[in-house]
Amino acid sequence: MKYVKWLFVVLLITSLTSFVGKDKPTGGLNIGDVAPDFSFRTTLKNHQLNLKDLKGQYVLINFWASYDAQSRMQNVSLNNAIRDSFKKVKFVSISFDEYQSVFKETVRKDQIASLVCFVDTKGETSEIFKEYSLDRGFSSYLLDENGVIIAKNISASELSSFIN
């Protein structure tokens, strides 16, 4: 029972912090910027990804880490929305977990398709973290067919206004 109370407190705090500072500008790239190119090889299924190879498609890039509850929940929400309703959007999930084992277990628990999940074990010191000017709290970017950012920190419910 003691743990249930703490879980409720954590959920309450998390939900309240999602409303605080909603209008504050966030770090990173802005709408209208061309997304920097990157390349990854996933260890989950030995799958290669080059962002430039996805030109001609809508791409949703979501940056997250298992230790950041809000970014992790957003990752699951976006993945489920795209898998269920937005087949013409390519989802790319990039984690900044420093340990492969933590990343693999999180992807398994969250039931994210392993072909869309990549990890940069350099964490917040990685090149992609710097190129995208990310900050704690992470970000997501919706790219158009030309690799231009058309939305930032988009929610699953907001996707339809950009895609349809």
TrEMBL record:
Coiled coil: none
InterPro entries (alphabetical): AhpC/TSA (IPR000866), Thioredoxin-like_sf (IPR036249), Thioredoxin_domain (IPR013766)
Matching Pfam families: AhpC-TSA
Domain Thioredoxin, residue spans: 29-164
Organism of this sequence: Bacteroides luti
Name listed for the protein in its UniProt record: Thioredoxin-like
